[in-house]
Amino acid sequence: MLSWGFQVDALDVARWQFGVTTVYHFLFVPLTIGLSVLVAILQTMWHRTGNERYLKLTKFYGKLFLINFAMGVVTGIVQEFQFGMNWSDYSRFVGDIFGAPLAIEALVAFFLESTFIGLWIFGWDRLPKRLHLAAIWAAAIGTNLSAYFILAANSFMQNPVGFRINPDSGRAELTDFVAVLTNKVALVTFPHTLAGAFLVAGSLMVTVGLWHVMRNRDSADTGAYRFATKLGSWTVLVSSALVILTGDIQGKIMTEVQPMKMAAAEGLYTTESPASFSVLTVGSLDGSRELFAVKIPYLLSFLGTGDPNGTVQGINDLQAQYASQYGPGNYAPIIPVTYWSFRFMIGFGLAAAAIALLVLWSQRKGRTPTSKWLLRAGLVMPVLPLLANSFGWIFTEMGRQPWIVFGEMLTRDGVSRSVSLTEVLTSFTAFTLIYAVLAVVEFKLLVRYARAGVPDVTPQTDDDTDDAERPLAFAY
Amino acid sequence: MELTTVWFLLVAVLFTGYFILEGFDFGVGMLLPVLGRDDRQRRVLINTIGPVWDGNEVWLITAGGAMFAAFPEWYATLFSGFYLPLLLILLALIARGVAFEYRHKRPEASWKGRWDQAIFWGSAIPAVLWGVAFANIFRGVPLSADHEYVGGLLDLLHPYALLGGLTTLGLFLTHGAVFLALKTTGDIRERAGALAVKLGVGTAVAAVAFLSWSLTIRSSAAAVVLAVGAALALLGGLAAARVRREGWAFTGTAVAIALAVATLFAALFPNVMPSTLDAAGTLTATNAASTPYTLKIMTWVAVVFTPIVLAYQGWTYWVFRRRIGVQNIPQH
User: Fold this and answer.
1) Across the interface, do B185 and A468 touch by the CB < 8 Å criterion?
2) Total-model pTM
3) CA angle A122, A123, A128 (to 5 degrees)
4) ipTM associated with this complex
């Protein structure tokens, strides 16, 4: 029905919609994961020390957290519905396994998160201080727990375990739920994703703190901002170390369970032992020949196998192997996408860590940073780990292609047969439009509230108006 | 009891919980322009559900997740088949959820006005479409022998389904008005109580018509009892609202919603999605279900965690039990 000079079918649009809505959703998830814990830590410090500085920071970063949280919640609902709407044959194929972690995520994690976030937002004057503190921790735990279940579900797609294929129905059936929850891909992806989330949250904390430190030098709250800047910088440094550590383990597991993805990350066409890591390769347009390359010898072997002389399989050899195993077809992902997203993930993540180091250095021994360049670097800082997170997901999902469940189901076989191109185009367009508008609104609000700075927290004079007449401590 | 029956009941319970809880949220959202005469009054309305709406919506996420885990075929056929209505529901829930959080973030009347629109439409659209969707599930839709939906959008929009939509719209409006009468003070409380009675009379007519029509499509003794119970609970709730017994009125509308949903599920069992074409296309609690092993695990998880969730969610309602009025709304 559409003639654009090239063929677009419902499958293509469904894929684009999944990519766009998932990457978009994951712009908000890292901040929710990381900031919930950081705000809980700040409130705990206030609780322990009674120092008003920490209360101010709790409320200030708490507001930024909530502006972001709302977006994470509403874009998350789409994710759960989307499997059934656009990928119903996938849902039928894996529902016996994949549905369980999703349902558990809702029952165990989302209820905890959403209920206690409500108690925390509105409970400042309704709950005893200790319970109110417990509420933000419960919400933070719920948020972090939800990441585990959804990553266990995703890891099944990368490295299916604990199942069998029912010969009668042709569907995957759960045989060992513990194996699904302790999938080695899940066990390492969980800390990797959390560390990546804290990289984003710490960066935002630095950005906002640093801006206030450098803009309002004589403000009474400078001490609070300096503290936030430091807490954020250390969060970034520690989490970047954890990202690297877990990423390294991930690389080895990936080489073992998804060798094609590792080869695609590197654009390694022929099996090598030892294999060198390409820092930058410029190939001929068809990608079959290298024109220019910067390589570190032995590194890829070491990353992939832990042995500098280890063998890393190449794309061509794996393709031949898969073709004989699964039948004719192309079993390689789109190499430029995997190659570059892998490098952008690492590069943007490291850049954020480098800025955090600079920020800490600039504030050593109570100094106030003055460099305009530092301020600029600080302002772009949260964008870097956000991009790293996005590229990490693009890498891991695109690197799995053409499979939707590695070795078991092709992505093209998972799409809904009953959904027309018009329907999926309508939904893709609608989501893209509403998401674009909301992105602008959200970003402007974040900037507005970040600029406004820490709130006044002097307690209201305790007059004798009775409870029924008193204004709420917080109201929408 | 068969585990597939247990999960049929659990999915029914989750949707019932969702409609009771988000039902009054939707009602409050739709009554925003009616009962909220100025910004302060509108803030009173929004703040009656402020601390709880998000937790209420998780009932839907859990119902969807439970459907996916326990009845993947049902989940896959329903969600891909009811594509455009579900898309509209999603867009509505997105706009509405963000609106609650963002509306008070800027003082301009134009800003607040736009979010008020989002709250109104974001509540009204799902309130109607959930009724349309459940009426279609109940009546049956064109399903091929391999359980694919083969109808179009217009196959979902027939008089019975529209009456279903009108019924949920009316039930949620009445339920919301009763909830507001229970949770507010002063002028809003009075007007909400009076409006609940007026809305309730029309709703009762629609609900009785819809449930009667439903029982002519498929029925069982239990379903008839439940339907009569739903009608009586609604009338009882309205009588209580008339004499300003707000707690009883709310109990009445909540029970009415629960029994109405129960009526549909009771008459539907053991089917979960009947086919109007080939009988082989009909999805049942058996042929749509996951394996016994998956159902057993999910049952344990539900047995352990559902009471915990109910306890802390119930406690939240206790924490925020106080009525609020315009005097409780802070300046900012």
Assistant:
1) yes
2) 0.94
3) 170
4) 0.94
